[in-house]
Design brief:
Pfam families: Ribosomal_60s (PF00428). The chain is mainly α. It is 43% helix and 0% strand. The longest helix has 17 residues.
């Protein structure tokens, strides 16, 4: 049996790998296909790039269940997001803050010393 030729292309650096996976995910999104590691790897290979297999898996996991279109347009990608909690102080807490005396820290200024610069600034 003949062995498959070993891929001798160098593995792309981190930034290139991330960009390749991002573009591959966008291609799959535009083609209305599910984003999975196998499809990402096929697109990256077709682009004549070689990335660590972990990158395709990371992108698959990160985008699983997310709406890529929503991510592109600035929403969170989740159907329901938790409302932002507002913090309001109770009247008692506000009164306690008012009652605390403010301590002033006075900085003692030290007199400057004359340093002989050897006539440099004379």
């Amino acid at each position: 049996m003949a062995k498959a030729a070993k891929d001798t292309r160098p593995i792309a650096d981190q930034a290139t790998s991330e960009a390749a996976c991002t573009y591959a995910a966008l291609i799959l999104y535009e083609d209305n296909q599910d984003i999975d590691a196998t499809k990402l790897a096929k697109i990256i290979k077709a682009a004549n790039l070689r990335v660590e297999p972990i990158w395709a898996k990371v992108f698959e996991k990160a985008l699983k269940g997310k709406k890529v279109g929503d991510l592109l347009h600035g929403s969170s990608g989740n159907a329901g997001s938790a409302p932002v909690a507002q913090t309001t102080a109770t009247p008692a807490a506000a009164e306690a803050k008012k009652a605390e005396p403010v301590k002033e820290v006075k900085k003692v200024e030290e007199p400057e010393e004359d340093v002989d610069m050897g006539g440099l600034f004379d």
